[in-house]
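Milestone 3.1: sequence recovery, worked example.
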């Protein structure tokens, strides 16, 4: 393997997490200057999911993320290099990633149909327009697909990746108001004392309180 390919998975993971932070910011906050944050959040979340899945596949071997790779007769170097891959190879398509992930790692992507639905709406937004009847939010993809996936793969939590100046308080408040179930990171626990909890339902409240305690919260029920 060419040396340039050895750290591809790590670079991809960091890029995917950066896209996730951008998606979390645009999905859960509002801009008076830019009325396209909702659409942008969908593009960014789908992009984050795609890159992070490819990063996990590439941990097994970087060539596994490709559908087609150059032949030895198509390159001028002794080894298959990064330049040849970027110019001549073809990566796995978005919709095919769950099966490649399973085949290479044994991991089944959570809520795979939701993942595929977001691929379709991403294409629509990117090339045509935003459908008016799409029933899911960006938070559905972030917290029902990406969150459990990165937690299973690397012990990471989606709420740890957001571009807000205050990393947890307002994000957690918004997720709770919307009834979004999210995995609770140990790093977020100290911020809970400053969160204004507006619980939409008792069943949701009980489930999230259990997750808070599992993450290390030792205070009274919130």
């Amino acid at each position: 393997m060419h040396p340039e390919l050895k750290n591809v998975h790590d670079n991809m993971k960091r890029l995917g997490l950066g896209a996730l932070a951008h998606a979390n910011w645009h999905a859960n906050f509002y801009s008076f200057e830019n009325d396209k944050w909702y659409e942008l959040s969908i593009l960014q979340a789908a992009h984050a999911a795609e890159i992070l899945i490819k990063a996990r596949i590439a941990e097994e071997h970087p060539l596994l993320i490709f559908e087609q790779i150059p032949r030895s007769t198509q390159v001028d170097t002794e080894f298959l290099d990064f330049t040849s891959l970027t110019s001549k190879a073809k990566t796995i398509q978005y919709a095919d990633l769950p099966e490649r992930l399973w085949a290479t790692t044994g991991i089944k992507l959570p809520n795979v149909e939701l993942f595929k639905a977001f691929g379709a709406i991403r294409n629509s937004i990117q090339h045509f327009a935003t459908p008016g009847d799409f029933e899911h939010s960006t938070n559905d993809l972030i917290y029902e697909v990406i969150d459990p996936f990165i937690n299973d793969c690397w012990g990471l939590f989606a709420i740890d990746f957001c571009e807000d100046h205050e990393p947890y308080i307002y994000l957690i408040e918004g997720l709770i108001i919307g009834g979004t179930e999210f995995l609770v990171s140990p790093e977020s626990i100290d911020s809970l004392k400053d969160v204004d909890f507006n619980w939409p339902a008792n069943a949701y409240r009980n489930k999230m309180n259990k997750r808070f305690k599992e993450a290390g919260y030792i205070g009274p029920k919130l």
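Residues 3-158 form one domain. The longest helix spans residues 37-60.
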